[in-house]
Amino acid sequence: MDIKVKNINLDEAPCDLLVINMFAGVKVLGGGTGAVNKALDGLIQRLTREEKFKGEFGETLIFHTHGKIPAKKVMVLGLGDRRKFNLEKIRQLGGITIKKARELKAKNIVTILHGAGIGKIDAVDSARAITEGAILSNYRFLKYKKSEAKKVGKIDIDEFIIAEINKSKIRKIKKGIELGSFESLGVTYARDLVNEPGYQLLPRDLVDRAREISKGKSNIKLKIYDKAVLEKMGAWALLGVAMGSVNEPYLIHLKYTPKTGRAKKKIALVGKGLTFDSGGLNLKPEQGMSEMKIDMAGAATVLGLFSVLNDLNLKVEVHGIIGACENMPSGSAIRPGDVITSMSGKTIEIGNTDAEGRVTMADTLFYATKQKPDYIIDIATLTGAVIIALGPQITGILGNDKKLINELEKNSKITGEKIWKLPLDEDYRKFLDGKVGELNNVGGGRSGGAITAALFLREFVKDIPWAHLDIAATSYAEKEPNSYTPVGGTGVGVRLLLHWLLGV
Ligand code: BES
Ligand code: ZN
Ligand code: ZN
Q1: Measuring from each residue's beta carbon to the nearest atom of ligand 1, which residues come in under 6 Å?
Q2: Could you give the CA distance from residue 125 to residue 133 in angstroms, rounded to a whole number?
Q3: 405: buried, middle or exposed (CB in 10 Å: 19+, 13-18, 0-12)?
Q4: Tens-digit pLDDT profile for residues 202-229
Q5: What whole-number percentage of the chain has pLDDT above 90?
Q6: Residue whose CA is closest, atom 7 of ligand 1?
């Protein structure tokens, strides 16, 4: 699907589907919609009345033009309440447009730029959001469904064109399309990784992806630490979790430096990279294990982001750090009650082998502190508890730095990836005291699990400003949360972190 802007009148644009819009409660059609209505001798005004089209958000009215204008069909999209209109709505409208176009088998779409008129939204932002909605809703994971892939290929959309008559806006719209495209590519990269089955994406495959990403790019450096090197480094937390698997663990370290100029800040992004989490000897039950190929979603977000960093020309130094391993039960697996010494020197007693993510991250976070970053942000499918606390569509955020959390909250309101702050309460820290080791990897039973897990992570970030995103619920969509997020891996966090990085 080619997305571009054209300096053309809506009513003069040849296409299979022309998309215009209407806010709720509008009596007289203005702007682009008004112009199309005029070219159609007032047909839209009549139809909206006859069909009782109210302009509610997401409502659609579709009709044939019978050759009156070059567009074959017109779709009027409801924008809803003008006061509630925002970028997330535009993103969703992009998604709705693609879905309808697929149903109608329309290959060429021309659309109005929503919100740029009376909605008063900047053209860059609006174009960026509609581009994201269009690309992300068009995503499918059909690698292992060849016949369906063929079918889908036949109804694929060729062109998605934003029509703009105001010449001065063209440059802005181009910029928005470019930003939205790269960000969405990062998201679909992450989605592909999350959707890949556990055996098809082993720890060494994450290493290969990191190699592909850094290949031929002089400003993206890659260091890989294999089992032998990790042993020398004393990374027994990561090694301990990996002990039960025949597939060896790796620590992946990507480093991006801006092509020109000095980096303003140094940021470390740490992703949980469990390519499969069976629970280990504390084996998960059937239901809990079936989706555990997604336990590398944090790593997928970091890799997705790195796959587009060069295209976005970021001005900060970014470190992407991943502990890639597999949590399996076997004769060589780590046992409940075992004590390991992490890279930091702190000893960890394994209360439960299924709380493995935090154990691997003890070493990856500690490794991150050694890079002396200004900020550390980790992203991890860390706890089932966050799903209970916040439900399927909200990421939990915890950390030791209010300002950083505030900034991420602000950015999430723009990117539409919902996050909610949970308290890192000091009183719960004692639950993690070990009986034999310095720290137990679980504490406090199941209650407050997202908080105790984050408190465990905090032990390894020293006093560096740090935020932790628990994406256990949001990395995978069992039902579509919105028009641009299909069932499966969501690629959550890629747009949020990119948006934040672009503004640091
Ligand atoms: N990978 C899981 C968390 C998870 C659950 C991710 C559901 C995505 C969906 C994590 O390793 C885990 O198993 N956590 C346990 C911790 C418990 C043993 C203290 C949990 O949350 O049940
Ligand atoms: Zn687990
Ligand atoms: Zn896990």
Answers
A1: 277, 295, 352, 354-357, 381-385, 442, 449, 472
A2: 12
A3: buried
A4: 999 999 999 999 999 999 999 999 999 9
A5: 95
A6: 384
Crossing angle (nearest 10°) for helices 494-503 and 167-195: 130
The answer to whether 335 is a known catalytic residue is: no
pLDDT tens for each residue of 254-274: 999 999 899 989 999 999 999
Closest CA to 254 of 400, 406, 364: 364
- Atom 8 in ligand 1: which residue has the minimum CA distance? 472
Rounded Cα–Cα distance for residues 130 and 29 (Å):
22
The C-alpha R_g of the chain, in whole angstroms, comes to 25
- Which residue, judged by its Cα, is nearest atom 17 of ligand 1? 355
Residues 503 and 315 sit within 8 Å (Cβ to Cβ): no
Ligand 1 atom closest to the CA of 385, numbered from 1: 21
Look up 284 and say whether it is catalytic.
yes
Q: CB–CB of 179/185 below 8 Å?
A: no
> Which among 64, 183, 44, 53 is positioned nearest to 127, based on CA atoms?
183
Element (H, E) at 469: strand 466-470
Q: Which two tokens stand for residue 24?
A: 């709720």
- At residue 420, φ and ψ (nearest 5 deg) are -140, 135
